[in-house]
């Protein structure tokens, strides 16, 4: 769908209206019943992350070149918000994840991750926050609260996802900038999950606080390129996923101070078809095995636990987008155990970048393309 050039005013901010009516939902078979897919919006340039606003009718959507927009369930799109930081928009870099503060109703803070350029053209992942203006047109007083150090990326493996826990902490899942050994080096943030306060401060009970030569923000290490992260609603514990190389995509449950193996332990090989030089096997003493692993990489991305009441057939499922496989993966859970897997929406032929559960109980997906889409996905209701 092409976007209309004429803007209307809605609740005090400019909205670009869609030039066509939203198409009727498409239907596809699944183990839990007929899946419905409705296109909500299109024409988004490499959308990466979304976060629903409290009204449940609008959301913030990031576009990797550096734009943040308000998108409505009616398909409307705002002009890009001002006040967004300058990003390193090269290759996989740019504006990435977005989350609302746990206290958004009072503080109106929006958190972003993005690739930030440093010296000599190298870049790293940064986290910042700013206040969303009352008219939804800008971020005010944006401040950086965390920087991945040192900056080593030449355009790839930034990660990254943001997850708030229930105790006032913010987890940031980071990539290793395609610098494999750094995942095992505790003086660097590459290939780590970091845990910080909402203002970027270091919690006193982080596992490496007070240790010489160690970045105190580190929660876990030995990760590759983390693309999905979510808080398990039944246990309150962080889960993440990450890209392997050629094979070996993983789901992990990162625990404080633990080593998740990359590049010493991996189920994958190099893209050249040769072994990973540092690898010692699929399992290595002193490292944690993946909670779930794919020998053939689907190219995992954003993920969300389904705990809404709207579709009982999806209860206790973990949904994960797939970029390479161009599908939506549903992992069926019994507690923490994965007891089944289903690949959905392959008929769409779309790289799925983000997955979120909306306040209405539907899944909302972003497709990764130069003209990406926002899709609403549910089950046929009887």
Automatic annotation (TrEMBL):
Location of the Glucose/Sorbosone dehydrogenase domain: 44-376
InterPro entries, per database record: 6-blade_b-propeller_TolB-like, Glc/Sorbosone_DH, Quinoprot_gluc/sorb_DH_b-prop
Name the Pfam families for this protein. GSDH
Q: Which residues form a coiled coil?
A: none
The keyword Signal is assigned to this record: yes
Q: Where is the signal peptide?
A: 1-23
Give the superkingdom in one word: Bacteria
Q: Which UniProt keywords apply?
A: Signal
Entry protein name: Oxidoreductase
Question: Could you read off the lineage of the organism from its UniProt record?
Answer: Bacteria, Pseudomonadati, Pseudomonadota, Gammaproteobacteria, Pseudomonadales
